[in-house]
Amino acid sequence: MGARLGLIAAIIVAGALLLPLSAVAWRAEGWGGLDPSDWGALWFTLWQAALSAGISVLLAVPIARALARRRFIGRSMVIVLLGAPFILPVIVAVLGLIAVFGRSGIVNTALGWIGVETVSIYGWQGVILAHVFFNMPLATRLILQGWLSIPGERLRLAASLDFTATDTFRRLEWPMLRAVVPGIFLVIFLISTTSFAVALALGGGPRATTVELAIYQAFRFDFDLSRAALLGAVQLVIGGTAALVSLRLTLPSGFGAGLDRAIPRWDSRGLGLRAQDIAVIALACMFLLVPMILVLGEGVLNLTGLSAGVWAAALRSLIVALVAAASTLTLAFFMSKAIVDLPRGGWIEVVGSLSIAASPLVLGTGLYILLLPWINPVSLALPVTTFVNTIFALPFALRALIPAMRDLRDDYGRLSESLGIAGLTWVRLVAIPRLRRPGGFAAGLTAALAAGDLGVIALFASPDQATLPLVLYQLMGAYRMDDAKAAALLLVLLSLGLFWLFERGGRRA
Amino acid sequence: MKLTTTIAAGLSLLTAAATAEPLTIYAPDYFASEWGPGPAIKQAFETKCGCEIEYVTGDLLPRLRLEGDATRADVVIGLNTDDAERARQTGLFAPHNVMIDGLTMPVDWTDDTFLPFNWGHTAFVYDATKMDAPASFQALLDAPDTLRIAIQDPRTSVSGLALALWIHKVFGDDAEAAWAKLAPKIVTVTKGWSEAYGMFTEGEVDMVLSYTTSPAYHIIAEGDETKKAAIFPEGHYVMVETAAQLAMTDQPDLAQAFMDFILTEDFQSIIPEGNWSLPAKLDPAKMPAGFANLPLPDVALIYDSAEAEALRDIVVAEFEAGLGR
């Protein structure tokens, strides 16, 4: 039953991705191919995304491991703050990174003091730095979920066998990583392929043209809908191929069930390892928090001076976030069940991962074309924003839920069946307690993402429907940098607050 | 006779108000936002006509082309001259029917579809406490490569496109070479004006592509006189923003009433501090004090909408080639 609903959900998602694309293609006047410059954009998009995803995951592994091995005051705070960069509006993140790595930023000032030549953030290195800044924390969070899913009993056994940290890594942690990392690499790779404003601002010029920029140009500058649709389709094909490859690389970890107890890590009590973990966590916090503090710190002063319009926009963003969180969680629950239960579930996983590879511009334009004959699209600005965010957050929610759902089947499936537990009773007694933690994480992430999204609202909004991210851009566009920083701070507080609340709800099981 | 027609017009406006169908105006986001000129203009017009204005924001031209005849717009405001030709080609617009005289703009206006409502010179803005302005555009190209500039991408931004047209107008066939000389100084190219200007106010770049009127914001709103626009004797490219009414509008009288309102003082006096740009028709004596001493260039450069459209792909190619793509 649940699996069948999941199949229906997957069909809805596939339709939501393909129909708008077809609508754009259908509205196109005449068909042309891709320009030579589009191939250049494609190549740049692919390699920078692969590098961004690779570096993000490589850095995330030691950080997640350090966070999994250590218990310290403020640990949960650090974990919540790790969610922050991901939901920052692009422009805020860019200004934050510039404050640290820019010409007059902290790093170059320090390099100047010790007489070393300064480094430039502009160029491909800046694009990748920004993508790592956005996505490495996300990777850390997702990998940390994997670490926490290693049953405490296995660690106890490891301890009684006198495992060193290296043994634990080889026998327990590496299989876990093989199970989760390909999927995480995939989502970050895909999210980096749709990057555009970051790539342009830090890429330093037309050499850093991505496919999404080419789509924007085709749409806005040339109004060449056929090219926009074609490029949008190329992005989806890349996404689908990458999803298939990552599925191939994923190996199930198969640890079996445990009693969910937090277990001290006997293998890593050594002083050297402790120092290593502390250093890793401290460095990660510095890399992620300093840019944010530098931009958002000034916002505190202006927070009380924000106009009623800004607060109203914040309320709208809150509502969008809550509805999107509920709908994404519902979709992800049924889809992950179908992925785990159905023989060809892998295809559903591919569909569920595709949406981040979809161009927001093509999706928004396509929806606009589809709605136009029936209703004034502008009156649907907020529902459409909620819908698109539901679809966009789905891959992240699936990454969190699929491993948990798989464990649920492997470890509790036979017991549930022999006891005849099914339907709502199964949901209540088996699924909810076991999925609460990843579910809370998925809902929190969706809410935070939806609150910070700018993608589609800009195409649909009328002034009385502006969300907080849109208002932030309006403030900047009207020279009001100080108010914009306060609005950015409000946005981050809102998103992180939602994230924290949902996660907490998930953990109180 | 005149009185009766006035009354009739007034009555038709009243019935328009009674049916409560608002006048739908498509406008750029910055225009209609709480911090743009839109709300004050809406209020001024609504008290005058007893009607209601509804702004719909977004990217004007793509939206109009998507909607075609099905558009709900009665009036479109905020299309600049570089976009106007493509807008005209949609065939959606009707003549503005407004007598144009006494414009306070440095360009002759003959377009009978697109009515100008504000304008500004494109310019490089800098912080006078940190550097001296280059004396000319050529001097800017010859400046040492340690000078750091942020510009907007001509492919994504109207001001970026204005710069590409500006360079083409000043340097002609040498435009690509001019871009190449500028390239080492261009730290970055942003999607829109906001990102680049943010980098400037945060001190990351020395100069930013903006408008000669940008310093007025800092003078009036912040009491800061250090931000200045570099004035070049070669001349500055002028961006003119226009409004036009739709031929298919279901409220032609109201749309025409709004068009007639645009060049009046009530509308125009909102522009300087609402849009931080120059009004198309306003007695200089009525400009706010912060604008009075603003240095403005002597030479205004502009392509009319047809020329700008013909040059669009050429100047973008110059930008891409000059910046070494």
Written description of the protein model:
Chain A has 509 residues and is an all-alpha fold. Chain A has helices at residues 2-27, 36-69, 75-81, 84-87, 90-101, 106-113, 124-148, 152-160, 165-193, 197-203, 211-221, 225-249, 271-296, 299-302, 308-341, 345-354, 360-371, 381-418, 423-452, 457-460, 468-477, 481-507. Chain A has 2 domains: 1-31 and 299-509, MetI-like (MetI-like fold, Orthogonal Bundle); 32-296, MetI-like fold (Orthogonal Bundle), CATH 1.10.3720.10. Chain A has 22 helices and no strands. The longest helix of chain A has 38 residues, at 381-418. Chain A starts with a helix and ends with a helix. Chain B is of the alpha/beta class and 325 residues long. Chain B folds into 2 domains: 2-119 and 240-289, 3-Layer(aba) Sandwich (D-Maltodextrin-Binding Protein, domain 2), CATH 3.40.190.10; 120-238 and 293-322, Periplasmic binding protein-like II (D-Maltodextrin-Binding Protein, domain 2, 3-Layer(aba) Sandwich). Chain B has helices spanning 2-18, 29-32, 38-49, 60-67, 81-89, 137-142, 158-171, 175-182, 193-201, 214-222, 252-262, 265-268, 271-275, 289-292, 305-322, and strands at 23-27, 53-57, 75-80, 93-94, 115-127, 149-152, 186-190, 207-211, 227-230, 236-246, 278-279, 300-301. In chain B, strands 1, 2, 3, 4, 5, 6, 7, 8, 9, 10, 11 and 12 form a 12-stranded mixed beta sheet that branches. In chain B, helix 5 crosses helix 15, helix 7 packs across helix 8 (175-182) and helix 8 crosses helix 15 (305-322). Chains A and B meet through helix 5, helix 10, helix 11, helix 17 and helix 20 of A and helix 2, strand 2, helix 4, strand 7 and helix 9 of B.
